[in-house]
Write a structure and sequence with these properties.
about 250 residues, mainly alpha, 2 domains, 10 helices, about 75% helix
């Protein structure tokens, strides 16, 4: 099954889509550069902006590459490559793929248990669940942008009050992190007791290490004005968290 998922037709299909999206990105890059020159922006600054953008995109993309490698063992290389290159997100793809695998009865993302039906279901679910951002943007983005361009209500400090979307996004991520941490603690306690240390502590330690690394990056970027570190925070947190898992085991 894994050989079929890594077959030439799948590489051609997924690679063709990725090349098309990459071509669109190049077209927009060229048009944006020409538009900047047309309005009188300095060419030297434009070139430095392009160079810095490329530089700051390399390390964050390492996390995406790790996601492709992690999923390729069970879903083949072309499909995770497509999902994480075009519109997917690392935390979303792995979570939905695992949930779909459990629902189709193969338990976990395992190449030896993968079937054509299971892969089709996993791939369909991964695609359908994430496409609504594009669909809703097509219908509602214009009105949403008008609201963003409005005056908004002013906070006492002079800035705009955070809207419902900001609060909802924060609440969603707090809930998501709480669910994961709760599952890690529950799995550890169910391993014959909290103080027996026979449960698996690895997920809890990895979560703590990753959180500490992220906190350090936030401190440096916000308190020490090292704003450029924001582009590296997620990738470094993931890498150091994975390194902690390797050291523990």
């Amino acid at each position: 099954m894994l050989a079929k998922l890594n077959s030439a037709p799948l590489y051609l299909i997924c690679g063709g889509i990725i090349l098309f999206v990459a071509a669109v990105c190049v077209v927009f890059l060229v048009r944006a550069y020409r538009a900047g020159v047309a309005i009188g922006m300095d060419k030297g600054k434009l070139k430095r902006t392009v160079t810095s953008s490329v530089t700051f995109s390399i390390l964050p993309s390492v996390g995406i590459l790790l996601g492709v490698i992690a999923l390729s063992g069970s879903l083949g290389t072309p499909w995770p490559w497509l999902r994480l290159s075009v519109i997917g997100a690392l935390h979303y793809e792995t979570q939905v793929a695992q949930a779909a695998a459990e629902q189709v009865g193969i338990g976990s993302l395992n190449a030896s248990a993968m079937t054509p039906e299971a892969f089709a279901t996993i791939a369909l679910l991964m695609s359908v669940c994430i496409m609504w951002g594009m669909v809703l943007s097509f219908f509602f983005n214009r009105s949403y942008l008008k609201k963003l361009g409005g005056k908004g209500s002013e906070a006492p400090s002079g800035g705009k009050k955070p809207g419902f979307g900001d609060a909802a996004m924060v609440a969603m991520f707090v809930g998501l992190v709480s669910a994961y941490i709760g599952s890690y603690i529950g799995g550890f306690i169910s391993g014959n007791g909290l103080f027996s240390f026979s449960g698996d502590l690895t997920p809890i330690i990895v979560a703590l290490v990753s959180a500490l690394v992220m906190a350090c990056f936030l401190y440096l970027s916000e308190k020490k004005q090292m704003v450029w570190l924001e582009s590296f925070s997620i990738a470094c947190s993931m890498l150091i968290g994975m390194l902690a898992a390797v050291v523990i085991n």
